[in-house]
Specification:
Number of helices: 25
Strand content: 5-15%
Distance between the termini: 19 Å
CATH architecture of the largest domain: 3-Layer(aba) Sandwich
Radius of gyration: 56 Å
Number of strands: 14
Helix content: 55-70%
Strand order of the largest sheet: 7-14-13-8-12-9-11-10
Structural class: alpha/beta
Shape: flat
CATH superfamily of the largest domain: P-loop containing nucleotide triphosphate hydrolases
Number of domains: 3
Length: about 750
């Protein structure tokens, strides 16, 4: 099954709900137009500040007075926050006297919209907001920084700071170090003054900050230098006292002892290596003496010419002994002589290897003696140099400590001198590139963009409402929805007959009069789908039911039965009205005299010929029922009913049973069990999904041969959904059907549909 195109689904949804979407957009635009009409025009003005990336150092000062790190984006963003800070804005408010300006201090009379929304704000603040908000803290007057002092808050000043801050922005210009300071206010001239004042206040704040840092650093360095001077003096006195007490002033014994100990350690390590090497050779010779074949791998044996000659003789005699043993007996004189010679050669070989082993053992003894002597010398040298090394290490530790104190003291002293020289040459790390100028054109409100934005937001809300409406839609509108929800195949979709043919009897007459109309073609397609689904044994008895009344099942039965008979006069079709509660078949066929009823035939009150009537227009036979027939379930479950259906099936090619709704009474399930196939009618966009699923589940409990027909499809509305099912293609083939049909409609069927089976 091909996956649905999500883009097309969204476009169809918008098309179906376009009135809701556009209506929301128009309402939002109207509200925005009212708000814009009452809004106060605002004017923008911008000044530009460039962060100075050039190095300006009269002296080599370091981090204490360093400026803005322009290579660090975080530092630049921090400068933007400084520009918008309350402290800096407060300095601008004080400089320009904005605390007394009605446009900024909150004393300006409210507009029309503000007055209209005042009751809502009051209700919110006094009611809902007070319930949701946590209990307020104890009332305290908020301090405000002015310059370098702290004062109690002035309400008008705080309002002016908030008004200026709300209209103030600081942004970077692209990938440069240029900061654009923009101010927005009801007065264009005042906006320019505020932007320029903020830029100047930022530069002044940088200089003040550096001077303050310089002063604090100088005070701290003065205290630190006195402490470092005392520490240096104590460390140097400790070094001199230690040298004097230990007699180490200018003495080189420590270095000499250390050098001697290092040489002895080297010689001892070499002797130990020689001893280990000779031990390995001796062990190898001992193992090889047990296995003479491994003697060839010993270097001393391989390098000995005499042993090599003996090995050659051993090989030759061994080969000769083997040859003679294979030709002569063990007591043959030649074999005995060869074996004697071989034993003599091997004895000489063993004597030679023993001599080599004794030589290696002598070398090992010499190496062991050398190692022991050197170890004794190393131990003595270690004892001699231990004390001197300890004194030397302690002395070096004291000297390093003194040197560290001296370096730290000199570093702080140089820093202190540099800071003292820098006090009078501080400059800001930025400069003003351009000052703001007043603007004669308001920046906001922008009528066109505001209305467009409001319209788009309203349309988005309308789309959200449309999606919600689609999700809340609990009826079936397509074959795929029914098949996915119930697992039962849809046989076809029958278009709705509109206009003057809306009366039930007129619908049947209309279908029979227009046999090539979309509705007629759809009904024939339903019967074709049923027949093709059971080619081996086509159903002879078909029951038609629905979940609730007024879904058009009786009209469908009358129309389909009459249509099948009219289109094929040789086909014998019988319609039996088994809705023993309502009995509307006579109304559907437009009859005044219904004749004998089915219950009268089953009880033997009338014969079959007295009960069967023929429809004059189509030629279909029918048996009507009597409304409010008593004991309807017992009648339907009786043996007489089964025998009657067998008789009907023998006399007619097709028997159609018009049953009652499944959810109303239990009769429909009894009828479904008696029929070969059951057609379940679902009215398009009306029957709730839960009702359909419950009714189908009840039918599937008694029969597995069930198919669904979607009835009374509104083609004009269905076309907006574009489901790709039966009804989606009607309008494409409107010219294919004969004239005189109902409204432009669609083909109602797929050529072959699978019959539903219980899942």
């Amino acid at each position: 099954m091909e996956a649905p195109n999500e883009l097309w689904e969204w476009l169809r949804l918008v098309n179906r709900r376009k009135a809701l979407i556009i209506g929301c957009g128009v309402i939002a635009a109207a509200v925005m137009a009212l708000m814009v009409a009452q809004a106060t025009p605002l004017y923008k003005a911008s000044s530009r500040i460039m962060l100075d990336t050039r190095t300006f150092k009269v002296l080599s000062t370091e981090a204490a007075l360093s400026g803005v790190d322009t290579l660090n984006m975080g530092a630049i963003q921090s400068e933007l926050e400084v520009i918008k800070s309350e402290f800096l804005v407060g300095r601008v408010v004080d400089k320009l006297g904005l605390a007394t300006n009605p446009d900024f201090n909150g004393t300006k009379p409210p507009g029309f919209i503000d007055n209209a929304l005042a009751p809502i704000r009051e209700l919110w603040s006094s009611g809902i907001a007070s319930l949701l908000a946590p209990p307020p803290p104890p009332q305290q007057s908020a301090p405000v920084r002015t310059g370098r002092t702290v004062e109690q808050a002035d309400p008008q000043r705080q309002a002016a700071i908030g008004a200026v801050a709300s209209g103030l922005s600081a942004t970077l210009l692209g990938r440069t170090f240029v900061i654009i300071v923009t101010s927005e206010s009801p007065d264009g001239t005042m906006s320019a003054r505020i932007a320029n004042a903020v830029a100047e206040a930022y530069l002044a704040d940088q200089v003040d900050t550096k001077n303050e840092a310089n002063r604090r650093a100088t005070e701290w360095l003065e205290q630190r230098l006195a402490e470092l001077r005392r520490n240096l003096q104590v460390a140097e006195e400790a070094v001199a006292a230690y040298r004097r007490d230990k007699g180490l002033a200018g003495s080189p014994e420590g270095a000499v002892s250390t050098q001697t100990l290092s040489d002895l350690n080297g010689r001892y390590t070499a002797a130990r290596g020689r001893r280990i090497e000779r031990e390995g050779r001796l062990v190898a010779l001992s193992k090889a003496s047990l296995n003479p074949s491994e003697l060839a791998n010993i270097p001393e044996v391989a390098a000995n010419a005499g042993l090599s000659a003996l090995r050659i003789q051993d090989v030759d005699l061994s080969r000769k002994s083997a040859e003679l043993a294979s030709l002569l007996g063990d007591n043959h004189p030649k074999l005995i002589q060869v074996r004697s010679e071989l034993a003599a050669v091997r004895a000489r070989f063993i004597v030679e290897t023993q001599r080599i082993t004794l030589a290696v053992r002598a070398e090992l003894d010499a190496a062991v003696s050398e190692e022991e002597e050197l170890k004794e010398l190393v131990d003595k040298a270690s004892v001699v140099s231990g004390t001197a090394s300890q004194y030397e290490a302690e002395q070096k530790q004291l000297e390093r400590e003194a040197q560290s104190n001296r370096a730290l003291y000199e570093s702080f002293l140089n820093r202190f001198k540099e800071l003292r020289e820098q006090q009078d040459i501080q400059r800001a790390d930025a400069r003003i590139l351009s000052y703001a100028s007043p603007s004669g054109t308001p920046s906001s409100p922008n009528y066109r963009s505001s209305l467009m934005a409001a319209f788009l937001v309203g349309c988005l809300l309308g789309v959200a409402g449309a999606v919600a409406a689609e999700k809340l839609d609990r009826v079936f509108r397509s074959a795929s929805q029914i098949e996915e929800a119930t697992g039962v195949a849809v046989l076809g979709m029958v278009p709705e007959v509109k206009g003057a043919a809306s009366v039930r009897s007129n619908v049947v007459a209309h279908v029979l009069a227009n046999t090539t109309s979309p509705a007629a073609e759809a009904m024939r397609a339903v019967f074709t789908a049923i027949s093709l689904g059971s080619l081996d044994r086509p159903p002879r008895v078909i029951a038609i039911t629905s979940s609730t009344p007024s879904e058009g099942k009786t009209t469908f039965v009358a129309s389909l039965g009459g249509l099948l008979t009219k289109m094929n006069t040789s086909r014998r079709v019988l319609i039996v009205d088994l809705d023993l509660r309502q009995a509307r078949m006579s109304v559907a066929l437009g009859l005044n005299d219904r004749g004998g009823t089915i219950d009268e035939y089953l009880m033997g009150l009338k014969t079959l010929e007295e009960c069967i009537r023929r429809h004059d227009i189509s030629g279909v036979d029918y048996i009507c029922a009597r409304p409010n027939t008593p004991n309807a379930p017992e009648i339907l479950e009786s043996h007489a009913m089964k025998a009657a259906l067998a008789t009907f099936a023998e006399r007619y090619d097709l028997v159609m049973l018009d049953g009652p709704p499944v959810m109303a009474v239990s009769d429909a399930r009894i009828i479904a069990r008696l029929a070969d196939y059951t057609v379940f009618i679902v009215q398009w966009a009306k029957t709730p999904r839960e009702v359909v699923k419950t009714a189908l589940a009840a039918l599937l409990n008694v029969t597995s041969h069930v198919g669904v027909v979607i009835n009374r499809v509104n083609l004009s509305k269905h076309a907006r959904y574009g489901y790709g099912d039966h009804g989606d293609y009607y309008s494409r083939y409107r010219g294919y059907y004969g004239s005189g049909g109902d409204q432009p409609a669609s083909n109602a069927s797929r050529p072959a549909l699978k019959l539903a089976s219980k899942k």
